[in-house]
Design brief:
Number of strands: 10
Strand content: 15-25%
Radius of gyration: 21 Å
Order of helices and strands: HEHEEHEHHEHHEEEHEHE
CATH class of the largest domain: Alpha Beta
Strand order of the largest sheet: 9-8-7-5-3-4-2-10
Shape: globular
Largest sheet: 8 strands, mixed
Number of helices: 9
Helix content: 40-55%
Length: 296
C-alpha cells in the first residue's frame, strides 16, 4: 500500500511538473514580441538628453543596475551631453511593472530578468535611436552599471539566431542588432553564474572599458572573467578603481556596503568624456555649452 501510494505521488508530481513546464513554455512564447514592440514599450519611459549644436549626434545608451535608475545617472547623462552626445537613459523596470522593492528582491537576487534577457532592451533602444533624426546611427556607445554591465556583456556574446531570440524573448531580430555600436563602458559588472562573460568571443568588437571596484563586496572581484574575455580577443581595457566600492557614484545609496567616492566618480566622468570624444572623432562638431533634458 505504501509503495502504491508513493508511486501515485511520483506520478502526480511528474504530471504537475509537466503541466507547470508546459505553462511556462506557453507563457514565455506569449511574452515574445518584436523589436519594434519592445522599443515602443521602453520608449514611453526613456529619459533623453540632447546636447547643444547641430544634429546628428553620437548616441550613448545608459543601462541602470538591478535597483533601477538612480539620481547619479542624470549627472552622468549631463556629462555625456556636455561632451556632445545624445543620451538615452533606459528604464527596464517601469515597462515591466517592477518596483524598486521588487527589483531588489527578485532582479538583484537573480530570480528574474537575467542579463541575456535584458540584452533585448539594449537592442530595442538602439533600434529606436535609429529612427530619430538627431541620432547618428553609426556612432553608438553604451554605459551599463552592475546589472547593466552584465546586460552589455551578454548582449555582445549571444549567438545570432534561435539562442538570441530565446534569451531576449524577441522575434525576427535583424542580423546584427548592435550595428553601429562603437564603444562601451562597463561599470562594476556582475560576471558570475548565469552570465556569458569570458565564455565565448563577442560577435562585434566595440572599444570597451571595464571598471572594477577594488572594495566591491556585491559582485566581487570580476577581473578573472574579464581577463578571460580579453583572451577571447575582446578589445577590453580593465581598470581597477582602488579604494572604491560598488555603486561608488551613488551619494544616496542605502546599502552599507556602498560608499560614495567623489574622486572615483570624477574619474568615471573623465572616461565618459573620452568615450564621447572618441565617438565624435572625425566629425566637425562644435563643443556644446548647454544641454536639454527631455522626460521619457
Amino acid at each position: 500500500m505504501a509503495h502504491a501510494a508513493a508511486a501515485r505521488q511520483r506520478r502526480w508530481a511528474r504530471l504537475l511538473a509537466f503541466a507547470a513546464g508546459t505553462w511556462l513554455v506557453t507563457a514565455m512564447a506569449a511574452a515574445a514580441e518584436t523589436l519594434e514592440q519592445r522599443a515602443e514599450r521602453l520608449a514611453a519611459h526613456f529619459e533623453v538628453t540632447l546636447p547643444a549644436g547641430a544634429a546628428p549626434f553620437p548616441v550613448v545608451v545608459m543601462l541602470h543596475g538591478c535597483g533601477g535608475r538612480r539620481p547619479f545617472m542624470q549627472e552622468m547623462a549631463h556629462v555625456a551631453a556636455k561632451a556632445g552626445a545624445a543620451v538615452i537613459n533606459v528604464d527596464s523596470f517601469a515597462p515591466r511593472g517592477i518596483s524598486r522593492t521588487a527589483a531588489i528582491a527578485t532582479v538583484c537576487t537573480g530570480m528574474r530578468l537575467h542579463g541575456r534577457e535584458r540584452a533585448g532592451d539594449l537592442y530595442a533602444a538602439l533600434a529606436w535611436a535609429r529612427t530619430q533624426t538627431w541620432a547618428d546611427a553609426e556612432r553608438f556607445g553604451v554605459i551599463g552599471w552592475s546589472h547593466g554591465g552584465w546586460t552589455i556583456l551578454d548582449a555582445l556574446a549571444l549567438r545570432t539566431g534561435p539562442e538570441m531570440e530565446r534569451a531576449t524573448r524577441l522575434q525576427a531580430l535583424p542580423p546584427e542588432p548592435l550595428q553601429g555600436l562603437a564603444a562601451t563602458l562597463i561599470v562594476y559588472p556582475y560576471a558570475g553564474v548565469g552570465s556569458l562573460v569570458g565564455r565565448r568571443p563577442w560577435r562585434v568588437a566595440p572599444a570597451s572599458t571595464a571598471i572594477v571596484a577594488e572594495r566591491d563586496f556585491i559582485v566581487g572581484d570580476v577581473r578573472v572573467p574579464l581577463e578571460r574575455q580579453r583572451r577571447h580577443g575582446a578589445p577590453l581595457d580593465v581598470l581597477v578603481f582602488h579604494g572604491a566600492t560598488h555603486a561608488f557614484e551613488d551619494a544616496h545609496a542605502e546599502d552599507p556596503r556602498v560608499r560614495f567616492n567623489p574622486r572615483a566618480t570624477e574619474r568615471e566622468h573623465g572616461l565618459i568624456r573620452a568615450m564621447v570624444e572618441a565617438l565624435k572623432k572625425g566629425r566637425d562638431a562644435a563643443a556644446p555649452a548647454t544641454s536639454q533634458h527631455l522626460g521619457g
